[in-house]
Amino acid sequence: xxxxxxxxxxxxxxETETRTLTGRRRTNVERLTDRLNxxxxxTRAGGLKLALALLWERRAECPGAxxxxxxxxxxxxxxxxxxxxxxxxxxxxAMIEGMEAVVNxxxxxxxxxxxxARIARS
Length: 122
Description:
The protein is of the alpha+beta class. It has 3 helices and 4 strands. A hairpin with a 2-residue loop joins β3 (66-71) and β4.
């Protein structure tokens, strides 16, 4: 609630800029809903980008597994069926670590990060 109250107060003062936890700016924010939403969605995007970088850096840990699609907060990885469990663990680890680096980058709080991954034929 404190975060909402702070966002509301800055909005009422006419401030039109907001930032994500990683520092990305959004300017000309005039609606309160945008002031509340932009930092959340932008922070999520920052965590996802870090996760994708980790997948690239750690591609040798799961050779043959290839991220083929990213849409919003989902990553689709293709691999042989025998590798599916390893690819799932590889993806989950990168997603958790990427988001933890963003949301737990300060000493203020320790936010638990959870992800859902599943194995499917298509």
